[in-house]
Design a protein that fits this description.
Elements lengths: L4 H13 L9 E9 L2 E4 L1 H15 L2 E4 L4 E3 L2 E9 L5 E11 L2 E11 L2
Parallel strand pairs: 1-7
Antiparallel strand pairs: 1-2, 3-5, 4-5, 5-6, 6-7
Length: 112
């Protein structure tokens, strides 16, 4: 049975907090990662994006508010602590189909 949208988002954040580049396995093969004016398409490219991000910045998200779940969409407000001591305030919008992330769009309210 496929995981709910909320469970998928929670799994995503657990992978990120543990620095696990395997987070890309939570995405559909043709998923899209959208943010900061860029689109990363496909699981292989998303895997490389996360491997590089984890290697370079060790992003560690922590909840700023409870997840807002509506059907297959999840809105998450988080603070992301980076290895260099910077904290970013981010809103993530997940679209989940069949227990995998179809699209993750992230909005950064402040960027160093």
């Amino acid at each position: 049975m496929a995981k709910s949208a909320g469970e998928v988002a929670e799994a995503y954040f657990a992978h990120m907090r543990s620095g696990d580049p395997g987070v890309a396995t939570l995405f559909h093969e043709d998923a899209r990662l959208v943010g900061l004016g860029t689109i990363v398409s496909g699981r292989p490219a998303i895997a490389e994006f996360y491997a590089q991000s984890i290697r370079n910045a060790s992003p560690a998200p922590r909840a700023a508010a409870p997840l807002a779940v509506e059907g297959n969409r999840v809105l998450a407000e988080v603070y992301i602590d980076l290895a260099n001591g910077v904290t970013m305030h981010v809103v993530d919008l997940f679209e989940v189909d069949d227990g995998l992330i179809r699209t993750l769009t992230y909005f950064v309210s402040d960027h160093p």
